[in-house]
Design a protein that fits this description.
globular, 355 residues, binds iron/sulfur cluster, 11 strands, 14 helices, 12% strand, alpha/beta, binds S-adenosyl-L-homocysteine
């Protein structure tokens, strides 16, 4: 029997990831206890604004990659963004996330800077802003930090450089080293740093996922978003669909991964990702029950949602932000967790790091 502690080895984690059914129960129950005793049974809302699906990159897994000419491109107007933020603020969400395809250049940088300042002004600094806008230069990260962004999400996607190179084009615009460099930069610039991986990628073994979890621990991240890899027909990785684990297998492994990470890193923020719900209608609740403490209600205007399809069967694309808020509130109450309204919900891990 594996002794559950925050000193698990690759071998332990590989075995734990493979547990299913009744055998997985002790892992899930232990993780639930760790969560209760560390971050408590509180779930924080992060309102997600999918700002734009315009992207300069060509990641082989993603439905809004530049090469997908079938994607109808959009960018939200300032008014649309600010309306979504006002909604989040009035609803007392702890924070919002501005996410988009990866764009560089002066116009984009200035636009984000302007939006950050405007959000800060309108909400009296009461809404923490997280950015998820990909790899940028030190100057840009600095500028956005100074304009009010306090957190940044940049997934490593996989900590195995060989797999990374297989799921991205081979060029300097898609380099594992650059991604790592950006994560270090964000840390240096005093962002709360979030990262994560996809689970069930082609070429990935269970041991790779075990190493991913240890990578997140070693990097000492403050926040994690990880979920199952989901295929999208209009992407190069779709050609490998027959080599994938079943969706249920990817789901089960992702739930175990959340539980293991909670045990490895008791005081970080872990998201119950939307990708889980695209496999199991109660997927996000299941993640909350085994250790996740963050959920991201979608604030994107309904008319854009069907165009922000990173993967197929993305849930909630016909709903509006009011419906998403109500639905999630009910779902969380079912798990016996409270909602952390009206506070930033900073990762305890970050706060402790700063002491
Ligand atoms: N452009 C930014 C933010 C948008 S993509 C970036 O890449 O960081 C946000 C996340 O969506 C990615 O990090 C990736 O992990 C996830 N994603 C993309 N395609 C996916 C797929 N097919 N299945 C599961 N997750 C996917
Ligand atoms: Fe662009 Fe992000 Fe999708 Fe890569 S994962 S293609 S950077 S939106």
């Amino acid at each position: 029997m594996i002794h559950l502690s925050n000193a698990l080895t690759v071998k332990d984690i590989t075995q734990l990831l493979a547990l299913r059914g009744k055998d997985a129960k002790f892992l899930h129950e232990h993780a639930r206890e760790v969560k209760k005793n560390s971050v408590g049974n509180v779930v924080y809302f992060r309102g997600l604004v999918e700002y734009s699906n315009i992207c300069s990159k060509n990641c082989y897994y993603c439905g809004i990659r530049a090469g997908n000419q079938a994607a109808v491109r959009y960018k939200m107007s300032d008014d649309e963004v600010l309306e979504a933020i006002d909604f989040a603020w009035k609803k007392k969400y702890a924070s919002v996330v501005l996410q988009a395809g990866e764009i560089s250049g002066q116009e984009f940088t200035d636009k984000i800077e302007h939006l950050l300042k405007e959000i800060h002004r309108r909400t009296n600094g009461e809404v923490a802003v997280t950015l998820s806008l990909g790899e940028q230069t030190r100057e840009i990260y600095e500028k956005w930090r100074a304009a009010g962004a306090s957190r940044y999400l940049l997934r490593i996607e996989t900590s195995n450089p060989e797999i990374y190179n297989k799921i991205h084009p081979t060029n300097t615009h898609h380099s594992f080293e650059e991604r790592l460099r950006c994560l270090h930069l964000l840390r240096e610039l005093d962002y709360q740093v979030g990262s994560g991986v996809m689970i069930g990628l082609p070429f990935q073994t269970v041991e790779d996922v075990a190493r991913d979890l240890l990578f997140l621990k070693e990097f000492d991240v403050d926040m994690v978003g990880m979920g199952p890899y989901l295929e999208h027909e209009a992407t190069p990785l779709f050609a490998h669909k027959d080599q994938l684990l079943s969706k249920q297998e990817r789901f089960d492994m992702a739930i175990n991964a959340v539980a293991i990470l909670r045990i490895l890193m008791p005081d970080i923020n872990i998201a119950a990702t939307t990708a889980l719900q695209s496999i199991d209608p109660t997927g996000r609740e299941k993640a909350i029950e085994v250790g996740a403490n963050v959920i991201m209600p979608n604030l994107t205007p309904t008319k854009y949602r069907e165009n922000y399809l990173l993967y197929e069967n993305k849930p909630c694309i016909d709903e509006d932000k009011e419906q998403c808020a109500g639905c999630l509130e009910t779902r969380i109450r079912f798990t016996g967790n409270e909602i952390g309204y009206g506070s930033w919900g900073d990762a305890q891990h970050y706060q402790k790091r700063k002491l």
